[in-house]
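Technical annex B. To support the medicinal chemistry partners, we prepared a structural model of the target in complex with adenosine-5'-diphosphate, based solely on the information shown next.
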Amino acid sequence: MTNDTWGKVREQLLNSVGKSNYVNWIEPLEFANLHDGVATFHVPTQFMGNWVSRNFGEQIMHHLAKADSSVSRVEFSVPATASKAVARTRPAMASAAKVAEAAKDEIDLPGAPLDARFTFDSFVVGKPNELAHAAARRVAEGGPVTFNPLFLYGGVGLGKTHLMHAIAWELQARSPELRVVYLSAEQFMYRFVQALREKKMMNFKELFRSVDVLMVDDVQFIAGKDSTQEEFFHTFNALVDQNKQIIISADRAPGEIKDLEERIKSRLQCGLVVDLHPTDYELRLGILQQKVEQYRLQYRDLVLVDGVLEFLAHRISTNVRVLEGALTRLFAFASLVGREITLELAQDCLADILRASDRKVTIEEIQRRVSEHYNIRLSDMIGPKRVRTIARPRQVAMYLAKQLTSRSLPEIGRRFGGRDHTTVMHGVKRIEELRNVDNQIAEDVELLRRSLEI
Ligand code: ADP
Ligand code: MG
């Protein structure tokens, strides 16, 4: 293979990855040599090497192999002169990337690989996650530790892991010398048990205490696992003492994790605790729109009819993962059958997902639950009284009706004693605002929502 071959392959890559990816990631690659079937490219930083390997490694390989059948593998490495500076910098999560193979002399940090798609760029910010996003951004800036730990919590598929990976990528890009370790609580336990079994506890302790930033995902997993909790607690304290940043996620608030030791709970609450709220319609639509932008590169000829995204954002409200899955399937299907993406196609091809997320909650049920919760009479829900003690629960019920059913504002208004749709809209807005500033309301809404969604 020669530089010429690479020149041709680059042209093909320009087509397959798109202009901006090409400029950012492919153009800077410098073909170094081909040895024993391994094509090596020089990259300016290890971070970039990891990124290219994860995102474009396969495509590069594919085109290279077509141009020169002797190529069986690609590697990205920082040239010798530059690599000194970054020798200590290999992020733990890069262990999965091919660059790692060339760097065996470095300490093997205990992290898990990062998902290249989970960056701040690809994270859509909306009301439900803006606080968590802001906190994550702040931590990703590096600098002096201001809150420790950062504790992110929220339901399945709301972006906890995405945000953690985004922090890791960003930190790595800004300060390559930092040892950033991301892993799940399950992996932490696995490592711990392995160390016990192999009598390597000293190594384990040293390893974890030597990181600069530790991220443990889904920490609820260690609840009830006593010796793992214990070790986690010590690791945690050791790092906090050294002023090292810790970022934790869980599916619920620290205080609500069952079978977690009290001292751990209180430690976890010491920093900044922020939650990711369930997605709202706007956020879901934003996420879909972003995804579609990506798909446009891949499926250039597909036509997406207006209203389809809105329909999906409205109907699929369980979690973002399901939402993304639906869109992926829709595009793949449309491209297979060569049809436009219309509402009918979406209904056809996503029938199962739509059925599963079909909420059967009725407005009557919402009204009943809410009035029970606030101890008011059901008849007052739809009656004319305007005192706060009645009006507020009514607004909560309207809000939930908007969120949990597919009824339109005028329809909801009718069910609330024939109120105008602007009244409903006002109520919904009011509760949206209050949720952010009034913990009690936020809690009430969350509790009611959960009880209604079962
Ligand atoms: P969690 O860890 O909270 O269960 P994830 O971080 O794994 O959820 O997110 C599930 C999926 O949804 C991922 O593919 C993620 O990229 C996507 N996702 C979640 N929230 C957002 C968001 N705000 N913007 C873009 N993608 C998101
Ligand atoms: Mg997760």
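Notes passed to the chemistry partners:
The CA atoms of residues 331 and 337 lie 10 Å apart.
Residues 82-106 have pLDDT under 50 and may be disordered.
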